[in-house]
Amino acid sequence: MHxxxxxxxxxxxxxxxxxxxIIQNDMMPSLVH
Length: 33
Description:
The chain has one helix and no strands. By secondary structure, the chain is mainly alpha-helical. The longest helix has 10 residues.
């Protein structure tokens, strides 16, 4: 997970856990590849 400015914030073991952590912190997940 990265902040809007590209700063690394956290690492999650899968996309589901990452999305849950993002939502819990009042942010909106988006997939970028």
